[in-house]
Amino acid sequence: MTETGEMTYRRVHRASPELLFDCMTSPEHLTRFWGPAGTITPADGIVVDLRPGGAFETTMVSDAGDGTYTMKATYVEVRRPERLVWIEPGVEGGMKTTITFRDLGDGRTEVITHQTNVPAAYLSAEARAGFATSLDRFDAYVAGLTE
Q1: Among 22, 52, 88, 139, which is most buried by a count of CB atoms within 10 Å?
Q2: Residue 109 backbone dihedrals phi, psi, to 5 degrees
Q3: Which domain holds residue 105?
Q4: By C-alpha distance, which of 80, 77, 82, 83 is closest to 103?
């Protein structure tokens, strides 16, 4: 049995929970920021069947053109604009991602990304830094939408 753990990331955006939820669930938005620095995620490589039991898939392509990485998940909970939950069954038997959109009441929303059953490889400092660059890309994209 491989060791797994959990991770939590918190970011605050000057945007409504509805806008942030829609960015995380629409291929037109996802293609603009999904994936770590050094990758792109073409819109035709994104599947969003936004319902419990529906598919969520993304195919990231290395900017250097030396590889692709496909994430295949199934939505477990879809509650616009408060919560989005998916499980990646092929990752160590089911890595679970829960994204909570918490309205701070002042035009800002806290986005909490909590992952459980995270494989050890994803917990490394390098992997965490890569994930942080994807959150940075989301921050910049949302800032551009709301300016």
Answers
A1: 88
A2: -130, 135
A3: 4-146
A4: 82
Q: Which residues pair with 79 in a beta bridge?
A: 83
CA–CA gap between residue 90 and residue 15 (Å, rounded): 33
- Measured CA to CA in angstroms, residue 111 lies from 44, 76, 139 at distances of 26, 18, 11
Say which residues have a Cβ less than 8 Å from residue 56's Cβ, sequence separation at least 6. Answer: 47, 48, 49, 71, 72, 73, 74, 75, 86
Q: What's the total number of domains in the chain? A: 1
Query: Residue 110 sits in a domain of what CATH number?
Result: 3.30.530.20
- pTM value is 0.93
**Tens-place pLDDT, residues 54-89:** 999 999 999 988 899 999 999 999 999 999 999 999
